[in-house]
Amino acid sequence: MSFKVRDAREEDFSNGFLESLSRLRPVDDVTPQEAVAAWRKIIKNPLHRLLVGVIGQQVVAVCTVFLEPKIIHHCGIAGHIEDVATHNDHRGNGYGKHLVRYAIKWAREQGAYKVILDCDKDMIPYYASMGFDLYGHAMKYDFSKVH
């Protein structure tokens, strides 16, 4: 069977989506039903896509891409890529890169002037191999640390 990229479907959350996503952060506390509820919110926004890479019906890779309409850059659009992960059993086959390239292409087709993402330091060479440049510094305000 061949690898295919498509938008996530409800059944994907019982067919490898959560296992693939757990490569980034543990999702043991998320049930397929909870994931489906979150997915239903996501798909209401046409500027937000949850992509999956599948072999047959099995999800082997995941990626989120969304568009941010801006006022700067002549009211341009910035693309954002998040949560790229490949199932442990399928790493090293290029599936994550395939999803990222698909997300970049979609953002460009929608008129994005750039696509940005955050990654851990050890992933910089991975994304650089797809044309991303190191730019700026990421910061976060973590509500779990606020008392």
Would you kindly provide a written description of the structure presented here, covering whatever features stand out?
There is one protein chain. By secondary structure, the chain is of the alpha+beta class. The chain has a single domain, classed as Gcn5-related N-acetyltransferase (GNAT) (Aminopeptidase), CATH 3.40.630.30. The chain has a 5-stranded mixed sheet. The longest helix is centred in the C-terminal third of the chain and has 15 residues. The relative contact order is 0.15.
Q: What's the structural blueprint in terms of helices and strands?
A:
Blueprint: E1 3-7, H1 17-21, H2 32-42, E2 48-55, E3 58-69, H3 72-75, E4 77-86, H4 95-109, E5 112-117, H5 124-128
CATH topology label? Aminopeptidase
Tell me the number of helical segments per DSSP (H or I, 4 or more residues long): 5
Major sheet details: 5 strands, mixed
Low-confidence regions? none
- The CATH homologous superfamily: Gcn5-related N-acetyltransferase (GNAT)
Q: What is the N-to-C succession of helices and strands?
A: EHHEEHEHEH
Give the overall shape: globular
- Strand content is 25-35%
User: Strands of the biggest beta sheet: in what spatial order?
Assistant: 1-2-3-4-5
Radius of gyration: 16 Å
Q: Which characteristics define this entry?
A:
27% helix, 28% strand, 5 strands, five-stranded mixed β-sheet, single chain, alpha+beta, Aminopeptidase, 147 residues
Give the gist of this structure.
The protein has helices at 17-21, 32-42, 72-75, 95-109, 124-128; strands at 3-7, 48-55, 58-69, 77-86, 112-117. With 147 residues, it is α+β, with helices and mostly antiparallel strands. It has a five-stranded mixed β-sheet with strand order 1-2-3-4-5.
